[in-house]
Design goal:
The chain has helices at 16-30, 76-85, 100-111, 126-130, 133-149, 159-167, 190-197, 219-231, 246-258, 273-282, 297-304, 318-323, 334-346, 348-365, 368-383; strands spanning 2-6, 34-40, 51-54, 57-62, 91-95, 116-119, 153-156, 174-176, 206-210, 237-241, 265-267, 285-288, 309-311, 327-329, 391-393. The two termini are 24 Å apart. It folds into two domains: 2-180 and 367-393, Glycogen Phosphorylase B (Rossmann fold, 3-Layer(aba) Sandwich), CATH 3.40.50.2000; 190-365, Glycogen Phosphorylase B (Rossmann fold, 3-Layer(aba) Sandwich), CATH 3.40.50. The model has no long low-confidence stretch (mean pLDDT 92). Helices cover 44% and strands 16% of the residues. The strands form two sheets. Strands 3-4-2-1-5-6-7-8-15 form a nine-stranded mixed beta sheet, sandwiched between helices. A six-stranded parallel beta sheet has the order 11-10-9-12-13-14, sandwiched between helices. By secondary structure, the chain is an alpha/beta fold.
Length: 395
């Protein structure tokens, strides 16, 4: 079986989507599936037009256009490459909506009778559809709905995402599979080391935000919530780990300054590898008050490290976290976020229990190998032209 994953970019700065496709393809290959990626060279220095080993998986990098719109990644080179090479694969797995590479791949796959699946990646959630609403309505009418209707299956990561697909009027079969998390290497004395690295007092608890710094993720809400705690002289240090658009970073920095939190806040920038593990193992609480997440890979990574999480119901794995008692699910409001943080800061026993429950949840549910092997079953059914049920739920 030969599978091609199509994604507009695997820039490290995109965080979750990049890690997902790289880890998924790696796990598929371990399940004896000949999986590859084709993408643009967005923010990646790699050879073009040749199969390159990148982060331990085979990737075709093609040039994006210099006039590409933001996050659309227009690439005539991908069009030509797909047209010439798509017959070499049994099935395509397209990542993203409203982006050139996946749109183009779907159209060419239909023309050349190659089956394809689509990962909507939360882009059909009400909040996501409300962003640039008119452009998405036109794009959907002309292109995206046809892409979705003609797909062999849509890969969803939660029941909430399936509901979003159905509410969008798409009746294509769905395959519900969560995403995976790599088991972390335990770093001795992480709490001490992280405080030494960022010059934080050893007795000060660390509140961690680790994700792309984007208004969708609402780091500004976390800052405003913590400013309320600072007024009550609650001890904490906030680490904002991630990167984003310069204008938004400036806004967050000014918000921190205006809230009187400069001495209690660190902007660590983008972190990965052991630096990220150190942050996750050395912090005391993870908070992501996002408007919308189809899965929330950063949340799952925090759970894997045993870090208790505070998230909003709009993160679609929230029901699983609630059932496992692995974190606090609270409305995205200043008072409720602040109250949840105070609760966990005051109860180390609860933090420990939530952390242990989170590690157990990840081991049982979010294994990349198990997920890849289950996805392989869905691929095989599609390739053999068997009829899929309305929803295959592996979760």
């Amino acid at each position: 079986m030969k599978v091609l994953h199509v994604i507009p970019s695997i820039s490290p700065t995109l965080g979750g989507p990049t890690q997902v496709v790289l880890n998924l393809v790696k796990a598929l290959r371990e399940c004896k599936v000949e999986a590859e990626i084709v993408t643009t060279n967005d923010n990646v220095d790699a050879p073009l037009y040749q199969l390159t080993e990148y982060e331990q998986v085979p990737v075709w990098f093609l040039p994006k256009s210099s006039v590409s719109l933001k996050e659309y990644f227009f690439s005539p080179a991908i069009t030509k490459w797909l047209w010439q090479n798509i017959q070499n694969y049994d099935i395509l797995d397209n990542h993203y909506l409203f982006s050139y590479a996946s749109t183009c791949a779907g159209a060419i796959a239909r023309w050349q009778n190659i089956p394809y699946t689509v990962r909507t990646m939360g882009q059909l959630a009400p909040w996501a559809l409300a962003q640039s609403r008119r452009k998405k309505q036109i794009y959907s009418l002309l292109i995206e709905r046809h892409n979705l209707h003609r797909a062999a299956a849509i890969h969803c990561t939660s029941e909430g995402e399936v509901e979003d697909v159905r509410n969008f009027g798409i009746k294509t079969p769905t395959v519900t599979l969560p995403l995976g998390v790599n088991q972390p290497e335990t770093l001795p004395d992480a709490k001490q080391k992280i405080r030494e690295l960022y010059q934080i007092n050893q007795t000060t608890p660390i509140v961690l935000f680790l994700s792309r710094l984007h208004y969708k993720k609402r780091p500004d809400l976390l800052i405003r919530s913590l400013s309320k705690l600072a007024l009550n002289q609650t001890k904490f240090h906030l680490i904002l780990a991630g990167t984003g658009e310069p204008e938004y970073l400036e806004y967050l920095q000014k918000l921190v300054s205006d809230s009187g939190l400069t001495a209690q806040t660190t902007f660590s920038g983008f972190v990965t590898g052991k630096d990220k593990d150190l942050l996750l193992q050395g912090s005391d609480i993870f908070v992501l008050p996002s408007f919308s997440e189809n899965f929330g890979i950063a949340v799952a990574e925090a759970l894997a490290e045993g870090l208790p999480v505070i998230i909003t119901p709009d993160i679609q794995i929230a029901p699983e976290i609630s059932r496992a008692n692995a974190g606090l699910i609270v409305p995205g409001e200043e008072e409720t976020i602040a109250s949840a943080i105070v609760q966990l800061l005051a109860t180390p026993e609860q933090r420990y229990q939530l952390g242990e429950n989170g590690k157990k949840l990840v081991k049982e549910r979010y294994s990349w190998n198990a997920i890849a092997c289950q996805l392989t079953e869905a691929y095989r059914t599609i390739i053999e032209k068997q009829t899929l049920p309305n929803n295959i739920n592996f979760s």
